[in-house]
Amino acid sequence: MRNKWYIPDGFWHTKSNGVFPSHEAICILNTNAEPAEVHLTLYFEDREKMTGFSVNVDAERTLHIRMDKIKNDKGQPVPSNTPYAIVVESDKDLTVQYTRVDTSQSEMAVATTIL
Length: 115
What we know:
The chain is mainly β. It has strands spanning about 5-10, 25-30, 35-45, 50-55, 60-65, 85-90, 95-100, 110-115.
């Protein structure tokens, strides 16, 4: 993989206010004329890294990867209520955006950044 993006602050709550679920998403925009292969590696404070999270993003399309829904090639989900970091790798030049929706309290918080 020739392109890398780093997201050092991953964390999603299982607690939600009931209306909107807490979640994180990695949003990918592929403006290339060819599909992009994307791999995610998760790093933790207290355990070994997790690999095997992969998606394809079609040419000239966008894809929103919900971190509470994706599983790796072993069927393992992203751990909830656990701090982690994400390395996103792709064979194509992409635009990557990270968003967190935290509804663990009645006052929702949304944080987002484009990498």
